[in-house]
Amino acid sequence: MAVSVREGSISSSTLLKRLRSGSRKNATYAAFREVGRVIRTVQLLRYLSDAPLRRRVTAATNRVESFNRFSQWIGFGNHGVIADNNPVEQEKAMKLNALLTNAVIFHNALDIAEIVRQLLEEGWTIEPEDLARISPYLTEHINRFGKYSTHELGIQPDAYDPKLDVGFTPPREQDLTAAGLGQAA
After folding, report:
1. Would the pTM count as exceeding 0.70?
2. pLDDT digits (tens, 9 = 90+) for 151-176
3. 61-84 burial code (b ≥16 CB/10 A, e <16)
């Protein structure tokens, strides 16, 4: 097919029309399906027989899962459920969560870089393998709900006064009787 397209004996649009037809009886569709199965089988056999490849795939998968957990932790509101049915609002929520996640990762990376610089200045030897094991998906230093204190601003809250002064007088007996509240049931 690639040679036919390159040589001009079939146009790429014609090829795409054949593939989009969705008919399983289509010879082009069947040929590409079988090629796909062969490629998938070869990759699976390569994966099973190559231990270093399996380690690399597992490490990459763990990194992706770690990022997903971190992103979900950052976007904690509503347990990650986007309740709005408006696609624009859904996209906005996802993009804002991605922006916040990336901002925290960037901040963590800057903090890690600063610590590494300090260690190097102190004479520590840091190997690239050690740096490769450091993850920017750190959450221990983040307080998602904030810390609110006024003592740092020099503002002292008023002392608590348990007395409630609302400025009303006790009801008179005749007002209770008129309202039907002073009679025994």
Report:
1. no
2. 667 666 677 666 656 565 665 666 55
3. eeeeeeeeebbeebbeeeeeebee
